[in-house]
Q: What sequence folds into this?
């Protein structure tokens, strides 16, 4: 689907540079190649810019070269729109599905994305830079003005060691699938709470599920709540999208 | 995530053959290659079978060959579990994302999947057989006993010409993004209706959105209801998963 673009600008570009009235924005080699080589833009052409901090700005090309270029900001078209304070923690799976989870988390409005290594996670490392680029691309495509930070892979047990109990954890336990559907009741109850219901994190397990020790530890945490995602077993990437959707509807900015 | 398998059987296989006590099930070349070549199973080994009609059966290998084989059914491990009477209609997009939509619809419990050609759909044809295979694989992976039918591509206008008004349409209109969030209210209202709320179809548009004519026609249909999926613009594949999730929670079998 096409983003809510200014009618005169066909391209939306993320830049890691301050944006403001009259601000000049240099382009690096890749950006210049994309804008002038691939997208055939030239001097004077309008482009929408965002940097994840200063909202969205209508800019125009002031210098177009093969390896560099420059834009100048004209007017702010949208303010920065922050997503709710929701983290997505997930155990990396196969490459395409991990990419997909990051893209969908950025689209659906997670504030921070934390790949975690659980007892049954096969991945030893991730390409953080590549995943961050996926989050940027998702924001470019989908009209977002914010880009969630993708953290480097960390061990779930260590992350939980230092956990701030003020951030509640929605723990998607595939062991509950087919059990009594606790989920709708949970979301309806929570939905009745005051709108500003504080920070949350969604936790999605790996293909092998959580270990008994992990499950026991999470169940003992007062801030953690296990839910089931319906009667069918969902793949981890499906579970991530479903949980983000349900949280946004019940507690986030889809209300 | 691992499906709810019998502890003795590691493999779940879809077969297009009747299943029942003592029933012999011949394997075709591809199935024999997968089961005996790739998965290294042999005579006597247990396998779970389903065919989308007769539930799930524990079977064992009676003949294992390079190009053929045979299984015999022992006991039914689960009855057929039908999803709710929900169709997913979507405009095909890029290959990987179309595959993804079919996979997710099968996982999340759609009964039928209908690729539709809208005014702004680029695809002229689809590989129906390949998409059907994706639905089968999703059911194999996710413990489903039902496989949704994937229809061949048809024109949306013709489909609507013959539409049975008893099947309501949930029409995800990206033009509403950022507008008043009609969605939660819609789902809460509908959630209060009697449990058996009849057949539905979710309709997801292509990247370019619906045409004005399509939008006007859908808005004039008494059985159709337009909703917004939150304040951010979602890609078509994300919109499909989000809409399926919300429908299952409000009206389907996640209640």
A:
């Amino acid at each position: 689907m096409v983003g809510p673009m200014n009618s005169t600008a066909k391209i939306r570009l993320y830049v890691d540079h301050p944006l403001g009235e009259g601000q000049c924005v240099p382009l690096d080699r890749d950006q210049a190649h994309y804008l002038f080589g691939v997208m055939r833009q030239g001097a004077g052409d309008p482009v929408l810019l965002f940097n994840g901090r200063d909202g969205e700005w209508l800019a125009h090309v002031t210098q177009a070269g093969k390896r560099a270029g420059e834009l100048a900001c004209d007017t702010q078209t949208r303010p920065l729109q922050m997503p709710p304070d929701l983290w997505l923690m997930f155990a990396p799976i196969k490459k395409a599905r991990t990419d997909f989870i990051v893209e969908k988390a950025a689209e659906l409005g997670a504030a921070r994305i934390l790949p975690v290594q659980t007892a049954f996670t096969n991945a030893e490392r991730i390409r953080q830079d590549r995943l961050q680029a996926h989050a940027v691309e998702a924001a470019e495509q989908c009209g977002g003005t914010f880009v969630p930070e993708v953290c480097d892979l960390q061990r779930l047990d260590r992350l939980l060691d230092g956990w701030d109990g003020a951030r509640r954890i929605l723990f998607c336990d595939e062991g509950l699938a087919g059990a009594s559907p606790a989920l709708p009741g949970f979301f309806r109850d929570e939905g009745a709470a005051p709108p500003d219901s504080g920070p949350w994190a969604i936790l999605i397990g790996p293909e092998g599920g959580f270990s008994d020790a992990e499950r026991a530890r999470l169940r003992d945490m007062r801030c953690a709540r296990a839910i089931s995602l319906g009667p069918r077993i969902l793949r981890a990437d499906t579970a991530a999208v479903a949980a983000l959707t349900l949280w946004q509807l019940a507690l986030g900015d889809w209300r």
Notes: Chain B has two domains: 12-78, 86-250. Confidence is low (pLDDT under 50) at residues 1-7 of chain B. The longest helix of chain B spans residues 128-142. Chain B touches chain A through 46 residues (CB under 8 Å).
